[in-house]
From TrEMBL:
One of its GO terms (cellular component) is plasma membrane. This is G-protein coupled receptors family 3 profile domain-containing protein. It comes from the Eukaryota. One of its GO terms (molecular function) is protein kinase activator activity. It holds the Pfam family 7tm_3.
Length: 389
């Protein structure tokens, strides 16, 4: 947890002063830590420290995977596999931001922190789900036997799709905070959920594309069956791309289930808990909303890491398997048959004994024919001599 003091210090620089005397710090925190940020180091309420550790480990894993992809980029010669690097790097960079901003939902409220929460929640999720969507487009083209767009083109498409959600979130913050003058920390939960409807649409499209590749991927590019070697190679490639699509569908499905659970709790469950704890509502509307958002961020990040990023990095860096049919059908490595008069190779020494009886028979037949010819000549010569006499 060497990163924790740095994170606490950076968060404490956003808008909080030490004008009011602070209560004594809990076990695990120093006196210099402001009360809103003591949840990050309070060992008496362990859930904040555990969530912070899980978020930091997820961010570190995303960073390591991104560096590994950049180091191994030159070793990826296959264009189809290389095209997934761009969306993967976009996703890993977004996950790093997702884990980082989850810590902002653990600490107390102020105007600057609430603006950061509202402004970055939707665009970060939109970047994650647009990365999944462009991966689905890439896999569908590959399974159909077409060429995949380049990784930079797919990453640019993902950024363009996420830009729409960024505009929506920016307009929401500007209209409610700047124009109408409402506090950034006070907003109806339904408005917060509705601003993420575009993000949820991206997730559903990505899930539909991956499901289509898994169920019907082998039929997209079918143009008449054949038993040739090229058809077998194409079937093997389709199976490999369908394996990628299975992981993409699992990550999309798990994300959709998480969003259904989170929206149900955020819109209805937290209101019930707030109604029971009226004594804790003196400072504002929400009691458990911000911790619920932090938990949703961390779980979503790890779902995308475990079900998509790590398997996709493994499948991208793995060497393609060698085809077994090449040894039997590929004639580029076979030696030509020996010509007459050439030396026979060492492995063909058995051909001579097998053909030896035939050569002896031919020799004996030739010898018999010569003797008959000589006898016929002698007979004709004797007959000619008698006739001459």
């Amino acid at each position: 947890m060497a990163v924790s003091p740095i994170i606490i210090f950076l968060l404490s620089m956003i808008g909080y002063g030490s004008s009011h005397p602070s209560p004594p710090p809990p076990r695990g925190c120093s006196v210099d830590v402001d009360p809103p940020y003591r949840v990050l180091c309070d060992l008496e309420s362990v859930w904040g420290v555990v969530l912070e550790a899980v978020a930091c480990s997820g961010g570190l894993t995303s960073l390591v995977l991104a560096v590994l992809l950049l180091v191994k980029l030159r070793s990826i010669s296959d264009h189809a596999r290389r095209s997934s690097v761009g969306p993967l790097l976009l996703l890993l960079g977004t996950l790093l931001g997702l884990f980082s901003i989850s810590l902002a939902f653990l600490v107390g409220k102020n105007q600057a922190l609430c603006v950061v929460r509202r402004a970055f929640w939707g665009p970060l999720f939109a970047l994650c789900f647009s990365s999944l969507l462009v991966q689905g487009v890439r896999l569908r083209r590959l399974v159909a036997g077409k060429t995949s767009p380049s990784g930079s083109s797919l990453a640019a498409l993902g950024l363009a799709l996420a830009l729409v959600q960024g505009i929506i979130s920016a307009e929401w913050v500007l209209l409610t905070v700047v124009r109408e003058g409402h506090p950034a920390c006070e907003y109806p939960p339904l408005d917060f959920a509705l601003t993420c409807s575009y993000t949820l649409g991206l997730l559903l499209i990505a899930m539909g594309l991956s499901l289509g590749v898994v169920l019907c991927g082998g039929e997209f590019g079918a143009e008449g069956g054949g038993g040739s070697e090229e058809d077998r190679e194409g079937d093997n490639e389709k199976r490999r791309w369908k394996c990628n699509a299975v992981w993409l569908f699992l990550s999309s499905l798990a994300s959709a289930l998480l969003w259904v659970a989170w929206l149900g709790f955020y819109l209805y469950g937290s209101q019930t808990l707030r109604g029971r704890g009226k004594g804790e509502r003196s400072a504002g509307k929400k009691v458990l909303d911000e911790p619920a958002l932090a938990v949703a961020l961390v779980i979503q990040g790890w779902i995308l890491l475990l079900f998509h990023a790590i398997p996709e990095v493994h499948l991208c860096l793995r060497k393609p398997p060698q085809s077994n049919t090449q040894d039997f059908f590929d004639t580029s490595h076979t030696s030509p048959p020996p010509h007459f008069g050439d030396e026979l190779p060492a492995h063909s020494h058995r051909q001579f004994p097998e053909n030896q009886p035939f050569s002896m028979e031919e020799h004996s037949a030739t010898k018999c024919t010569d003797e008959e010819l000589n006898q016929d000549k002698q007979r004709l010569a004797a007959e000619a001599g008698r006739n001459h006499k």
